[in-house]
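I had to read the description of the data format several times before I understood it. For illustration, here is how one protein appears when written out as sequence plus structure tokens:
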Amino acid sequence: MKPITTLVAVACATQTSFAQPMLNMPSGLSVTSQNPSVTFPVYVSFDSNIYYAAGAIETTIYADHGIIEVTGAGMMDPQYLVTSSFGTSAEVVSGQQHFPSAGLFANTANPIAMFDVTYTVTNLSLPAGSLIDFTTDTTVLWMFTSPTLPSAVNLGSNINELAGVVIYNIPAPNTLAAFGLGSLVLVRRRR
């Protein structure tokens, strides 16, 4: 009986995440004391059988141990982008328009980059391998529903919010030693 229960739970979880748009970011991102900043897109993924294109988002993105700046839109050229940064969070309003009768069609890429984030770690005393969590709190997400009509639905906060990480790495002592030796060689050559 237990395996059947597990299969039902997995099927329900999969269907829920499939129907609701999801915010995500690339995996494998890291920062170090030598390279404390990383820039990455925040994407909206959605079920193309339900929605035609992503329209607009109003969200706040959060991260600890550093500063967040929203620097623009990734692969989408939004017709509007408004941001306010508050250190460890940034409020974002970004989107595109869709007016087929006027010949203006939304970009239907899926997933689509809604905005780019530049994160700079400021707490350089974190232990090596620390995970810096990124989350969002979305209040508005408009999704276009038709390729021929400018109709859209506001899903509000009924989406799968962003839950991503950036890894804080400390360079190995050998790496630092190699940088030191390289500096000595350069100084030596100049003389």
Remarks:
- The chain is about 20% helix and 40% strand.
- The first strand starts at residue 22 and ends at 24.
- The two ends are 78 Å apart (CA to CA).
- Residues 8 and 14 are 10 Å apart (CA to CA).
